[in-house]
Design a protein that fits this description.
The chain contains 7 helices and 4 strands; from the N terminus they run αββαααββααα. It is an alpha+beta fold. The chain has one domain: Outer membrane efflux proteins (OEP) (Up-down Bundle). Helix 1 packs antiparallel against helix 2 and helix 2 runs antiparallel to helix 3.
Amino acid sequence: MKLILLTLLLLFSLKSFADNDATCDLIKAKADITSSILTSPYVYGSNNESNTATLAIGYSISGLRRGGIVQDVAEAKCIALASTSVLDEQQKWILLTIYKAGAKEEINSLMIAKVKAKTHIELIEQQLKTQNATLSDYNTANQILLNIEEKINQQRIIISEPIEPIDTLNIKKLVEQARFSEARVAELMAKEEAGNSWDLSVVAGTQKDLYLNGPIQPFIGVNFKWSFSNWGMGEKIAKVKAKSEQVFNESKSGYTKSIDRLMLKISELSKVEEDKRNILDISTKNTKRLITSFQGVDTYLANNNKQVLIIQLMTQLAELEGIIARQTKYTEILSIQ
């Protein structure tokens, strides 16, 4: 089940990056169309009440500015998408990174315990030939080896999972970057909307009175529009930006809250590891005490039991090393709050 979950996490991550690239391409493609329309010259034609026909080429100054903003909005959306995606990925990989750190420490010691368990089995096999050992002894030793190999395979599954490199101390910076990029998108989109409140267009072409047979005259015109809504527009745009940051922080799915929940989870997991460590500390002390009790006793049964306890102690210490490695990572992450 753990392998399935880790594999799904990887697949979803790869799909996320592919979706982000496709989404960004789509955003930019749409922006290119809108910007092209806004910044391109246009044909202007009219026929007024005095029956004067005008045909000219026009160009909108505000359209040029809005076209640039449209491109900026698309770029900001892509940056925001990339920024928030990185933050999402960092959060996804944090726990797996912790598990991998523990697995790497634990597997090294388990490999040593495995060698010890194999040597023990070989010794029992020799004792079986001289009828000093029993099949029960052999089966017990073999089961111990199988348990160690199972633990090694579990750690291998975790270690084999590819992950994106993360910098746990950089989470705060990532949150700020994501918040800034989201606010930047909101600010630029507000500016784009504000661009509709004014326009300055210049047209140049020809004009002719349709009632008279006079010559075609050159024509130059200027069209100007300005809305009273422009008063205080800067403050309104700044308010949109501030509201965007507020939504980023306060929404249930906001990254600040999401990271708070992640930190709470890590804190609880750290407590679980601490409880496991305390239990293992007691268990290893008891195992060491039992090993010591066999010193000076040179019988097959005593030596066999001593070897079993030594292998048990090695697996306990291996698990303890994994716990310590995970606790170190937990502490490192919790320190960034």
